Amino acid sequence: MTKAAKDVSPISPKSVKPPSPPSAKITLAHESLSAKNSKATPKSAQNSSKPILIMECGDITLEKANKTLGFGPMFMEAAAFTSQEAVVMDMVNEPQDLDPLNLPYQGLIVTGSIEMVTSPRPWAVKVLGFLKQTFQLGLPTLGICWGHHAIALVAGGLADYHPNGMELGSHEIIMEPEAQDHPLLTGLPEKFPAYESHSQTVIVVPPGAKVLGHSQHDPHQILAYGDHTLTCQFHPEFTAPFMKDLLADMEDHQPAPDLPPGIVLGSQPNDTNPSRIIIRRFLDLCRGYQMAQPRYGLTTG
After folding, report:
1. Among the four residues 21, 103, 111, 170, which has the most C-beta atoms within 10 Å?
2. If DSSP states are collapsed to H, E and C, what string results for the chain?
3. Cα 253 from chain centroid (whole Å)
4. For this structure, is 235 an active site residue?
5. Closest by alpha carbon to 274, among 218, 210, 226, 222?
6. Catalytic one among 57, 145, 232, 286?
7. What is the pLDDT of residue 8?
8. pLDDT digit string (tens) for 92-113?
């Protein structure tokens, strides 16, 4: 039997080193999620023609495969998004000025990054400031890995290095009972495999957020902020070929001196279809679909 969802779940804060000093200043108000924001309802008639903005927070180079892949295109492929449904913006190299009050997008996907949220470069400081505003406005948002940490930070939580080191490979995600009530998770199996590649994690869950999923290594795999913002530690956009190439690069990996020792290496890549469904369902959520009977079942790729 799974454990009940929790409001605040620190990961032994005393065993975690203090957050790394940021390379650029961040000013964030630690505020609880208001009822108004958590219950915000997308206006389907107004938003249905707007695309989702995929905020690409970097790319990743696979050395042995000799290729570099952007996180944005991986999301486009994983969800089979058309150019009318989603657009990718390179937040690191080609960022554009965005007005949170006048966005031509119906929702946000905030991707992973090879950088750490505790040591943000100028591009990340700008993204964090923007996310703080869109979070307060209740804009539908899906945050993945770095995006998971960023949303937790702007919502009043804490992200830092996991005290037990990295989580890498295919791991089992175990959903809490309340997960079935969330529009992006309803109908998914209680347990499903997902790809992981992270050193940092959400250490303290923000006020008002709910923990809806965990793994053996990480108790905060899925966080929900009302019905319209969901963040995941795992990577639903990763594919088996990508994960195999990443694991090949990590075969001789030695943790950097400033990282806690230990890498939790999961099983070899396998079917992670349930995790990928979350991405496509997010488009429906943004468009204001009734999710009691989701359009996308467990056979959707």
Report:
1. 111
2. CCCCCCCCCCCCHHHCCCCCCCCCCCCCCCCCCCHHHHCCCCCHHHHCCCCEEEEECCEEEECCCCEEEEHHHHHHHHHCCCCCCEEEEECCCCCCCCCCCCCCCCEEEECCCCCCCCCCCHHHHHHHHHHHHHHHHCCCEEEECHHHHHHHHHCCCEEEECCCCEEEEEEEEEECHHHHHCCCCCCCCCEEEEEEEECEEEEECCCCCEEEEECCCCCCCEEEECCCEEEECCECCCCHHHHHHHHHHCCCCCCCCCCCCCEEECECCCCCHHHHHHHHHHHHHHHCCCCCCCCCCCCCC
3. 24
4. yes
5. 222
6. 145
7. 40
8. 999 888 999 999 999 999 999 9
Domains and CATH numbers, the chain: 38-287 (3.40.50.880)
What is the CB neighbour count within 10 angstroms for residue 44?
Answer: 14
178 catalytic? Reply is: no
Quote the pLDDT of residue 73. Answer: 95
Strand-pair partners of 108: 53, 141
Give dist(CA 46, CA 42) in Å, integer.
8
Tokens of 84: 């009318």
User: What mean pLDDT comes out for the span 139-149?
Assistant: 96
Task: Give catalytic status of residue 232 as yes or no.
Answer: no
Q: Averaged over 11-39, what is the pLDDT?
A: 35
Active-site residue identified among 198, 232, 237, 286 = 237
Candidate from 62-66, 143-147, 228-232, 265-269 with smallest mean pLDDT: 265-269
Closest CA to 129 of 85, 88, 95, 94: 95
Angstrom distance (rounded) from CA 301 to CA 294: 14
Tokens for 150, please give them.
């960023």
Among 148, 182, 198, 235, the one annotated catalytic = 235
